[in-house]
Amino acid sequence: MKIVVADAVYLEEQHVKKLRSIADVKIFEDTPKTPNELKERIKEADIVIVGWSHLTEDILNSAEKLKMVSIWATTCHYADLEAAKKKEIAVAHVPGYATEAVAEHVFVLLLAAARKLLLADRHVRRGEFNWRPFRGWELAGKTLGIIGTGAIGCRVAEIGKAFKMKILAFDKYPNFKKAKEIGMKYVDLRTLLKESDVITLHVPLTQETEGVVGEKEIEIMKSGCVLINTSQGKVIDEKALINALKSRKLSYAGLDVFEEEPPPKDNPLFKLDNTVLSPHIGFHTVEAAKKCTDICIDNIVKFLEGHPQNLCQPVRPISLK
pTM for the whole thing? Predict the structure, then answer.
């Protein structure tokens, strides 16, 4: 049996040893540049670990021996689930491993925006020391709107309460019990957009959520609203976002994710002074990365034992014998 780590996944020595105790292992430490390169990497694989590359229907069909995909991420969209279902390929993911890391990163981006931290940093590094241009604003008393109240969204709400923020939330499947514990109020999406000083997104990328924040939604927002996204780039219409930042309809955007990753070098967001950008690192702490890999490998072990866990969709038991 062959396991292929198809792209840049965090692996400690103990992880490599565990994988090698299970099967023959091939590890790639970079992300394939083309679909054909990815096909070549996984063509003989029984099991694939993937963290960044998209396993499209064409790529899945090219891997004739493939029986399982273990995604090194919370999201399931790195594999075409319909194509996997047709081929009876099990697809597992790692839910909940980076709740603290991502929730904390929301406030890294938000505080940097509120206190104009990046602009101030550049100012000091140029040898200047004028405090006047960098008047910020406090989180206390502001309204934080959270779109998506899974584990991360609820943790963001808890941190927001610690900053003495008022918390509004929108979710198709509200958790009223948790909302009562936190002090979070569920409202319809329009109300959240209209009343929030800061809006942060915590939804998976699906056909329903793609572009959930676009031109119409931004138009409803308060003038000067701050938009934070640490979920998936495509849940925001990036063109509409850029226009709103240029016009100052939105005062700031804090983005850890982009429509295209990596974003093209001529992306207009790079030229704006009212953005705080990071390269999809919300999950990337020592604690979260290790936990993600632990669970990712455990998903493989459980699958081989005949007790699959963390599946993105139901699948018939498959024998590798």
Answer: 0.88
